[in-house]
Design brief:
The complex is a heterodimer of chains A (about 300) and B (about 450). Chain A is mostly helical and about 300 residues long. Chain A is about 70% helix and about 0% strand. In chain A, strands 1-2 form a two-stranded antiparallel sheet. Chain B has 20 helices and twelve strands. In chain B, helix 1 runs antiparallel to helix 16, helix 11 packs across helix 12 and helix 19 runs antiparallel to helix 20. In chain B, about 55% of the residues are buried. The chains are: A mainly alpha (about 300), B alpha/beta (about 450). At the A-B interface, helix 12 of A face helix 4 and helix 19 of B.
Chain lengths: ~300, ~450
């Protein structure tokens, strides 16, 4: 191949050389591109589309053409009693079930961490509720609390704590229905908490406890002075995961009460599902979903700032 | 016996599709002098030489796609150039509506014919999803004249035929004939009389597990009818012909109060807000209910299920009215509609005409106890031999009304059923409940 040395080389070969032997910056961009494209496809596009849809009147039920309405849907959200009711229920469920699952999960993790000779039965029992699908757990507990056929009323009756003629209607009274749902969620999610905390517990060196014992520290002091501080990073991780999923609570109340009685146990995720799937109002449903997304972001940010700093 | 019916029905089907439909029908069905779906103008014939494949959505299990497939097979046998693919799914009307709305919104031409619930033609036709059938079958006054009036109203929209009925359905009042006869209790005509009748049976039977009346109070579609039955019987409507809200709040509150009074009288169980359609069916079937309100399909369960304890002991009567009112029931039922996006509309319209014909209805009645859409089939001796209770059902169906038609029926239904359930759970008073329903419906039905 003869090349005239005095003539400037063609620009394309210059570029090709840069691709063949890229500098570090280009190389980094090249290597990151596939991951970025994938993320854009599965994260940025759906979220972007959701936000885009939230500015439209997109009611599919009557064959209407989508119409740009600006912030009208957002103004409707603020005046929507169902939205505020669902937000209240969601926050309530989060405030009750996250600490509840933490306490129960910590207990389970401490139990599983004890030096049993055979540890697998304890760990299997710990894993089972976690392995059950959420809606399955909801249906099981809905049966537990059924007025006529439920185990809860049967046990109370056998213990002489309830009148056979006046069975308790657990899922038909707003307070009790909410309590039953929270109990189910705590039962279902404590295992997940326990698993993360168990991993944390196993990272704590035994030597710390041995040293504490030599120094004459009681079990209680060991728990507060060694276990809790050493476990804090795991607790924060578990709390963040659990809080985010608690804000998205759907399956258990949906299968237990369908949001009833009335709308007393309807969560934000259920309201979004109802608006989008039952009412086919995609625009307003998207707006509600954006509001829930913002709520999750705010709460997570506060968490990371407050709890994260403490850890 | 049943096989003979089936062969007979197929013979009648073949006759209907013969080249001279009027004469052939007269020969095959001497008791049916006119044909329900005969068009007044010749419909566009399909070209026999060109093979056509039609895809049909045939509903969920309660709509008996198994029987619909028999009809499809028969049609294909008579029209060898038409092959029919059936699709089924969606256990409830709600689930089917969600699926179909998505498919139709996407203007998908893959499905040519849809089986839709009675609450849907208004929405689908209004959205431009259904092909008007006048051009293929004839003017509505001719085509629809023999169908039950409620199905004429629901399926003709603005002078256009939106769909043809497949089979009827209604909330029926089932009762334990044996118990009422045993205690000499006459059939009640008002809710007050029903309370007295049920109390007499309950007091005499002394079975703590026996319920006087079972209705659906859980927030499901059945609860919409639970709200409407006592309301309608006072002579009021929820909406006018233009679809505007005309709810009479006092009458609606009286209706809800009526249910609470029946709970207080110990006739309806206290946890009625938990009761779903299968609960009523199963508890009635177990012999634990004196009066039960349920859809037509329940009859087959009471009569044929191996674990039924009420076989031969069940009667059907008109739903009682409020004092001074008139008995009205809540109509259901399913319709065949041609997709506006179909590529074979003329052929699809001919198949729909066949599926909605008298012989098809007769087959669905004798083989699956699906209620006919035409009044005289209820008194057809052949049909009555297979399903004797149709004699009692005719009067109930005739007095039926459809739930309010709206393009946003999902919201209408949700507003009514959720609030009705809350009132029955006593978390709202009837007046509060009606106020909630009124304000929610006012937003949707403008």
């Amino acid at each position: 191949m003869s090349v005239n040395a005095t003539a400037p080389p063609p620009r394309w070969s210059d570029r090709l050389d840069r691709w063949r032997d890229p500098d570090e910056r280009t190389l980094a961009l090249l290597l990151l591109a596939p991951a970025f494209l994938l993320l854009a496809l599965i994260v940025v596009y759906p979220i972007g589309k959701l936000i885009f849809n939230s500015f439209f009147d997109m009611r599919l039920s009557g064959g209407r053409v989508p119409r740009f309405v600006g912030f009208e849907n957002y103004l409707l959200v603020f005046a929507d009693v169902d939205f505020w009711n669902a937000t209240k229920n969601t926050v309530l469920i989060t405030l009750i079930t996250v600490p509840g699952a933490l306490v129960v999960g910590l207990g389970l993790a401490l139990l599983a961490n004890m030096p049993f000779r055979r540890q697998w039965p304890v760990r299997l029992a710990l894993l089972l509720p976690w392995a059950l699908p959420l809606s399955f757990a909801g249906l099981i507990f809905a049966w537990f609390f059924h007025t006529d056929y439920g185990v809860a009323n049967d046990v109370l009756r056998r213990l002489g704590l309830a009148d056979a003629g006046e069975p308790k209607m657990w899922l038909l009274q707003p307070g009790w229905a909410m309590a039953a749902i929270c109990l189910t969620i705590i039962w279902k999610t404590s295992s997940f908490m326990a698993l993360i905390l168990l991993a944390g517990l196993q990272m704590i060196p035994r030597s710390l406890y041995e040293a504490a014992e030599v120094d004459g520290a009681s079990r209680w002091q060991q728990f507060w002075q060694i276990t809790v501080p050493m476990l804090m990073p795991s607790i924060v991780v578990a709390l963040i995961f659990r809080t985010i999923s608690a804000l998205q609570t759907f399956d258990i109340p949906y299968t237990m009460t369908r949001g009833g009685p009335g709308n007393a146990t309807e969560t934000l995720a259920m309201l979004i599902h109802k608006t989008t799937i039952d009412y086919l109002d995609v625009g307003y449903g998207s707006t509600l979903a954006v509001c829930m997304f913002v709520l999750s972001l705010v709460i997570t940010a506060v968490y990371l700032k407050r709890v994260g700093n403490a850890a | 016996m049943r096989r003979a019916h089936f062969v007979g029905s197929l013979a009648a089907l073949a006759a209907t599709l013969a080249t001279a439909p009027q004469r052939a029908l007269a020969q095959a069905r001497p008791i049916a002098p006119s044909t329900a779906t005969a068009p007044s103008t010749p419909s566009k014939p399909s070209t026999p030489s060109r093979p056509v494949k039609l895809r049909v959505f045939a509903g969920g299990a309660n709509q008996r796609p198994d029987l619909m497939r028999l009809l499809f097979a028969e049609y294909s046998r008579q029209h060898p150039h038409v092959s029919i693919e059936a699709e089924s799914g969606g256990a409830t009307s709600d689930l089917q509506r969600q699926y179909l709305s998505t498919v139709l919104n996407a203007r998908d031409p893959a499905i040519d014919i849809y089986l839709i619930d009675i609450v849907n033609p208004a929405q689908y036709f209004g959205a431009g999803w259904l092909e008007p059938l006048n051009a293929y079958l004839g003017p509505p006054e001719q085509v629809m004249k023999d169908y039950l009036p409620a199905y004429q109203r629901s399926n003709v929209i603005g002078g256009q035929i939106a769909a043809l009925p497949a089979f009827a359905d209604a909330m029926l009042m089932y009762y334990r004939r044996d118990l009422l006869e045993k205690h000499g209790v006459p059939l009640p005509r008002t809710w007050g009389e029903l309370a007295t009748a049920a109390r007499r049976v309950l007091d005499a039977e002394r079975d703590p597990a026996l319920q006087g009346l079972s209705i659906q109070g859980a927030p499901i579609e059945g609860a919409v009818c639970t709200f409407l039955l006592p309301y309608w019987s006072q002579g009021f409507e929820v909406s006018d012909a233009a679809g505007r809200l005309t709810l009479n709040r006092e009458a609606a509150a009286r209706g809800l109060q009526q249910w609470l009074s029946l709970v207080d009288a110990g006739v309806v169980k206290r946890n009625v807000a938990e009761v779903k359609t299968p609960d009523t069916v199963n508890e009635f079937k177990a012999g634990k209910v004196v009066f039960g309100i349920g859809w037509g399909f329940a009859w087959d369960r009471f009569a044929s299920d191996p674990d039924s304890r009420v076989r031969g002991k069940v009667g059907v009567m008109p739903v009682p009215a409020m004092a001074g009112g008139r008995s009205v029931t809540c109509l259901g039922g399913w319709q065949w509609a041609v997709s506006a996006f179909s590529r074979h509309k003329a052929e699809a319209a001919q198949l729909v005409k066949f599926l909605s014909s008298r012989p098809s209805s007769r087959l669905l009645a004798t083989r699956g106890a699906l209620l006919p859409h035409t009044l005289d089939i209820y008194t057809d001796p052949e049909v009555l031999a297979a399903v004797p209770w149709f004699r009692d059902a005719a009067a109930v169906i005739e007095g039926g009304r459809s739930r309010p038609a709206s393009a946003d029926y999902g919201q209408v239904s949700d507003a009514i059923r959720t609030t009705t359930s809350a009132v029955l759970a006593r978390t709202k008073t009837p007046e509060q409940g009606v106020a909630t329903i009124a304000s929610r419906l006012a937003r949707v039905m403008r």
